[in-house]
């Protein structure tokens, strides 16, 4: 049975990265986030979070709360 060429192509792409960000603003169910390196993005799925909360974000969706007391670690390749 043959597969859809587009789904075969999507299987070749790497999975989306999970990043930690800080909530800086909330408008309805959309949050404005700041990444540790200074980048800014927006994500859906705010839920009960407040400004200043640390969250996990993947592909524009907040996946959960991140531990607030973890030191940031960066790896350079």
Quick overview of this protein structure:
The protein is mainly beta and 77 residues long. Helix content is 10%, strand content 38%.
How many alpha or pi helices?
1
Number of strands: 5
The coarse silhouette is globular
Question: What is the structural class?
Answer: mainly beta
Largest sheet: 5 strands, antiparallel
Radius of gyration, in Å, reads: 16 Å
Spatially, the strands of the biggest sheet line up as 3-2-1-4-5
Your description of this structure?
The chain has 77 residues and is mainly beta. The model has no long low-confidence stretch (mean pLDDT 90). It is globular, with a radius of gyration of 16 Å. The longest helix is centred in the N-terminal third of the chain and has 8 residues, at 5-12. Helices cover 10% and strands 38% of the residues. It has a five-stranded antiparallel sheet with strand order 3-2-1-4-5, with no helix packed on it. The chain has one helix and five strands; from the N terminus they run αβββββ.
